[in-house]
Amino acid sequence: MNQTRYAVVAKDLLEGISSGRYPVGTLLPTEFELCELYDVSRHTVRAAITQLQNQGLVSRRKRVGTRVEASTPKGGYSQSLASVSDLVHLAETQVRSIQSVHHFVADIALAKRLGLEPGEHYFCVSSIRVDQENLHAPLCWTDVYAQDIYSEVIELAEQHPDELIAALIEQHYGRHIEVVDQQVRAVLLTPGIAKSLNAETGSPGLNIIRQYRDEEGGLMVVSETVHPEDRFTLVTQMKREKSTSA
C-alpha cells in the first residue's frame, strides 16, 4: 500500500525529531512553513502532526506552536487497521439501530478529543449495533460525527442499517476514504450506555475512536464506539519496520 501524503510528512518529521534536527524542547516549524516545505495542504500537515501527537512525540498549544516532547515514539511500534474493507465487512454482519440524531457546533473540548474543528457545524448519529443472533445483548454504542454538509446521509443511514455511515458518505458524495486512524482505550460503562447495552454500570468497556481521512489527510467522519468488554475483541497485526543498512 502506498503511503498517504500525511504519513510521508509524519515519517519525515519523525526522522527529524529522532535525528536531533528538531531537538526535544524546541518548536517544529509552523503549519504554514510545513505546508510550503512539503508542498501539501494544511489538512495534510495537521493530520501528520496529529499522528506524532498520538505517539507522544509532540504537544500543541494555541498561540505557542507544536513542541517536541520526546525523541522516540512511546512503545516503539505503530499499528494500523488491516484495511477499510475489514471495517465495512464488520458493519455488514451487524444491524444499526439509530437512537438519536442531533446537530451542534463543536466546542473546543469536543473538537480536541475527537479531532473536529472548533466552531464548525456537525451532526451526530447515535446508535446501537446488534447481532441478529443475539438481539438482547447489543454489541456496542456508537456516535458518528460528520459535518452538516453531509446531513443527507442521515436518511441513508436509516435505510441501510448494515452499511457504515462513512461508506455511505463515500458513495453519496464521491469522496474516498484513504486511511482510518484508530485510538483504543479502556473505560468503565456509564449508566446511560450500560442501560442501552443491557450491561452493568461501571463494568469494563472498550472505547474506540476512528478518524476516517481522505488522501490529503482531510477528516471526513469520526466515530466513537463503546463495547462491553465481553462482547468484542480487537485483533490487530503489527509488523516491525525493516531497517535499511548501507
Automatic annotation (TrEMBL):
InterPro entries: Bact_HTH_transcr_reg, Chorismate_lyase_/UTRA_dom_sf, Tscrpt_reg_HTH_GntR, UTRA, WH-like_DNA-bd_sf, WH_DNA-bd_sf. Pfam families: GntR, UTRA. Residues 3-71 form the HTH gntR-type domain. It comes from the Bacteria. Keywords: DNA-binding, Transcription, Transcription regulation. GO terms for molecular function: DNA binding; DNA-binding transcription factor activity. The keyword DNA-binding applies. GO terms for biological process: negative regulation of DNA-templated transcription. This is GntR family transcriptional regulator. It comes from Pseudomonas silesiensis. The lineage of its organism: Bacteria, Pseudomonadati, Pseudomonadota, Gammaproteobacteria, Pseudomonadales.
